[in-house]
Fold each of these.
Amino acid sequence: MKPKELLEREICVLNTLSTLPHKIVSLHGKNDNIAEFVLHELSDEKCLNLSKVAYFIDNPDFDCFKGVAGVCRTDVYGPVCNIWSYPEDFSAHMRSASFNNKVRNFVRPSLHRSVGLDKSVTDEIAKNLEFGQYNVHATHAKHDNHVLFLYKKQNDDLSDDFVVKGLNFLLFCPIHY
């Protein structure tokens, strides 16, 4: 990708990211699945262009590693409709999305309390979710929790650092088990 095209692409992504805080707040207290909205928006081809992404939280205090949300391009909600304007319709769609359900039903004992997070563990999770090739990002979250993102880019036009900064918007979303 030429430098000018990459700059235009990054500006488009930054424009989308700049709207996320307002959108997150607009659903606060009205929806239990805000992370699904954000993940869907982030994975869109006009944003981070992810073909598959899974979001997990690890809570060592409760000895729980749990999937929060997942988006796969094959399960994506129709591009005609604005998900933020029709949250009930989008939520219904996500309840029936197979990849999202597979991620949300993924539960095991805390990784940070037992085996730790290493490549063999992420490979096992990725295999279970049929990722094939994937990227991983792990970070800390509020209340001594840990977050794990597995993602597969549609193409490599954006750096992983750029993608990770976008995924970190999910840290502002409430988590509902």
Note: Residues 3-172 form a domain with the Beta-Lactamase fold (CATH 3.30.450).
Amino acid sequence: MNRLQDLDYRVQTLTSPEEMPAVAQKEKPLLVILAMEEKADVCCAAIKALRDQADTAHIPLLAIGTQKAVALQKAACEAGANLVASDNAILAQLPQLLDQILRVE
């Protein structure tokens, strides 16, 4: 969160992934960053709900998980994450990841 604020992004943190689709619909964010951790089913359901809403389906989503959680990373992609990154190097690579996920196609 602090690193994003240092890059001049407005940041809103949520206490649970289930909140993400409703908050995204209300706030209209530029992008969503989701820390996957161990709640794969809850996080993937939230990603799918974000993708299923017409108002939020276009929002780029960066999922962050541990490098060891290959199944979790695959599940995030299948649920609709645009990009999945490992948490061990996220701070060093954050500006490049943001550029990649926000690239207009």
Note: Residues 2-102 form a domain with the Rossmann fold fold (CATH 3.40.50.2300).
Amino acid sequence: MKESHSDADVAGIFEKCWKELLKEYETRRLFNVYCSEADIQLHFASKLLGSLRFPTCVYVEFPISFDVGDFMISRMNLGKPRRKRKKGEGIIADIVIMGGHEIIPSIFAEIKYGPLIWNYLPILQAVEGKLTKERKEDVKEALLKTIERLRSWEEYGPSQSVVYDHLKNVDKIIRLIKDFEEWGNGPVYAYYCVINEIYPKLGQLMEDELHKHNAPDEIRLRFHHNSVRSWLEDQLSKL
């Protein structure tokens, strides 16, 4: 049987796969490939599976109890943690990387996806001259309204509740990491992987919030703003 990756290897592969997904994102987004967080999760997990060497495993929608003892007992006795628990007793991690014979995860990650809800096909058709004059004018009018709305949202910025929603349970996750590391032999990383198309300042606000909580280095924010407004303005200039 092949040996599992080291913790450093796993973290490096995780980072590499996330960067690959982001590199593909902008082009694929125009084809409505990503309609939800689950789609981002699927494509990311696929990249991880293609890069990690068995028996290092990739899990999705993986329950993690804030009670590390309970988590480890379930893992040892059942092979998997209990899913049914009271609200606030744990999280359902979007992505978990863990050796198949290990009890403690190397990485667990939360994926947050905030897309602008829009069908890009009419815009592309208008730019390519495939729409009637009347339909093209409708597209231009919709573009102008959407661009203005995005400008105002960017200027105002996300509310504090939006920031908090992207960092749910951060205090408990900080404690969870420390507890895992007390039981294990190496670092455990918790990632917040965020793609947002509306608020370019969200990433900095999240960083500020993590700093307020004295988050350790094992908690890592990977924020990507895909500027839909810039793309829409570029398309409008072509009409």
Note: The longest strand covers residues 56-65.
Amino acid sequence: MIGTHPDEEPLYECPYEVGDEVFVTGRLTVTNTVGGTTDIEHSGVDVRITWTRWDYETGWRFGGEPLKPEDVESIRRQATCEYDAEHYRREYPNNPALAESAAYAASIFNPKRTHFSEHDIAPPNAPRPR
């Protein structure tokens, strides 16, 4: 895995488990419609953790699914790129792999697949924005 050294054991137990619901107030990212990474602008998103992974450089990393439909829609809007496969076919006719990559990324785009670290999760009793 990227960011995971194969011989590195976690230095401490994972603070959360798959299925836990957390409030993410820090960096929240998603793979966008052309396959890149989009940082989501937000004031806090309730997320259910779907996977955990130790990263020897940054600590615990998580994947999660936003719980509120309005958050999913906001992520969808922010991560839908202005360029699509047709743009790449038109602008880069000698590089069809760009268009193929963009078409594939659009076909698997899912605004419910978010990524964040343990440092992006608010403490359980932290105040929430209104």
Note: The mean pLDDT is 92.
